[in-house]
Specification:
This protein is α+β, with helices and mostly antiparallel strands. It is built from 9 helices and 6 strands, in the order ααααααββααββββα. Strands 1-2-6-5-4-3 form a 6-stranded antiparallel β-sheet, with helices on one face.
Length: about 220
Amino acid sequence: MTRQSSFKSIIRSRMEKTGESYTAARASLLSAEEPEAPSPPRLATSEEEIRRRTGRGWEEWFDLLDEWRAPERSHTEIARWVAEQQGIEPLAWNAQAVVDTYERVRGLRQVGEKANGFTITASKTVAMPVERLYDAFVDESLRRRWLPDGELTERTATKPKSARFDWGDGATRVNVAFEAKGEEKSTAALQHERLADAEEAERMKAYWRDRVSTLEEVLER
C-alpha cells in the first residue's frame, strides 16, 4: 500500500466537495474544520491536539491502521490495538478518538456506530483525586447526588481505573475509564454503547453531557 494513500483519498474527497486546493483542503481537514454542511466534523480533534495527546498525527495513525489492515477487524480489536500502542485502556479518550475517526472517515461506520449498535461518549475533568471521582460512579449513595434518575447496575469495577455497568434493563451498557491528572485532578471518560439507533444516541449524548456537568458541580461543592 502506498504511504498515506488512505488519508490522501480523504483530502481529495474534501477537494471535490469544497473546490479547495490540495494544500488548503489538507490544512482545513487537519485543523478539524468542516465545510458548511449538516454533517459533523470528520476528525475528532485537530492535528495539533491529536499529536499532543498521542505522539502521532492523523496521517500517521491512518497509515499505521491501514498497514495493520484495520478495515478487516472489529471495532474492539482496533481499539485494543490502538490502546496497546499507547499503553492505555481501550476506553480512554485517546484510543476512542483515533478509532472512531478512522472508522467514520473510512466509511466503516456511521457517526457513533459500532458493530453492536451506536455508541456515544462523554468526559469530564474535575479538580479532585481520581479515587473520589471513581467513588462518585461506583458508590450508589454518592451517585444518586448527580444521577438521581440513573439506572446503573455495576457489572465489574477496578478501583480506581474503570467501571462497567448495565443501563436500565441491561440492553445497553455504560463503561467508564478513570485517569489521574495529578494528585488533585482527574478525568472520567464515559462510553454508553449498544444504543439502538442514531436518534437514541443523540438523546443519550445530550443526557450524559448534562449529567457529567452536574457531577462536577456536586463533587466540587
